[in-house]
From TrEMBL:
Residues 61-174 form the Phosphatidic acid phosphatase type 2/haloperoxidase domain. GO terms for cellular component: plasma membrane. This is Undecaprenyl-diphosphatase. It comes from Nocardiopsis metallicus. It holds the Pfam family PAP2. Keywords: Cell membrane, Hydrolase, Membrane, Transmembrane, Transmembrane helix. It is found in: Cell membrane. It is a multi-pass membrane protein. Its EC number is 3.6.1.27. GO terms for molecular function: undecaprenyl-diphosphatase activity. The keyword Transcription does not apply.
């Protein structure tokens, strides 16, 4: 079963690498840059989740502030897993192909994908903090994973496992941190200098903001 999955993953990877090799130079450059820049989108989503959550409650503020921490923890989990496997990257294993990104040296292993783990973790942390960003978060996580295969840095199974590991770890640690982070935000909000960073009047009052508050309290 594992060998069959790897064979399918390898075939898909080969097809995408060959496709990327035939792209116009500007498209190749965009793909190489995009594989790192996509991760920067999550920093923007973190900031937006924090900014909007200030008008809802301390729990969401705490979750938004914890999102980068959850992502780092998930990245650490991915690194730990990677140390148990010594799988070559596509660009290392299929030397007959030209990849559009510079190939990492032997020893920088492929499974799981750290980039995908970061993307999956960041997306999950954003969704836990502000679920209305779910579509954007999932979209950019998938784009990040796809880009890693396109540039020849990872196989499809690398990025799939990376996304799942990142999302699972980030969700778990975020939910575990929800209560202490809520208490911390409440405590810090007592400081006049910090209160504007943690509290804000809702821009829109009524059923919409009340629904968001109810949703946040209904989570585990």
């Amino acid at each position: 079963m594992v060998s069959e999955i790897f064979a399918i993953s390898t075939a898909w990877s080969r097809s995408l690498i060959e496709f990327a090799d035939g792209l116009a130079p500007w498209a190749q450059t965009a793909a190489v840059w995009g594989t790192d820049l996509f991760l920067g989108v999550f920093a923007i989503l973190f900031l937006m989740a924090w900014w909007r959550s200030r008008s809802v409650n301390s729990r969401l503020v705490g979750l938004a502030l914890f999102a980068p921490v959850a992502t780092v923890i998930a990245y650490g989990a991915s690194l730990t897993l990677k140390s148990f496997f010594e799988q070559l990257r596509p660009c290392q294993a299929m030397t007959d192909l030209n990849t559009i990104a510079t190939c990492d040296p032997i020893g920088d292993w492929s499974f799981p994908s750290n980039h995908a783990a970061i993307a999956g973790a960041a997306a999950a942390a954003v969704i836990v903090a502000w679920r209305r960003f779910a579509v954007a978060a999932i979209l950019f996580a998938v784009l990040e994973a796809f880009s890693r295969v396109l540039v020849g840095a990872h196989f499809p199974h690398d990025v799939t496992v990376g996304l799942l590991v990142g999302a699972a770890v980030a969700t778990l640690v975020s939910l575990l941190a929800a209560r202490p982070m809520t208490a911390l935000v409440d405590k810090l909000a007592e400081v006049d200098l910090l209160r504007p960073l943690l509290r804000a009047e809702p821009a829109v009052r009524g059923p919409e903001i009340e629904q968001i508050r109810e949703d946040s309290h209904s989570r585990v």
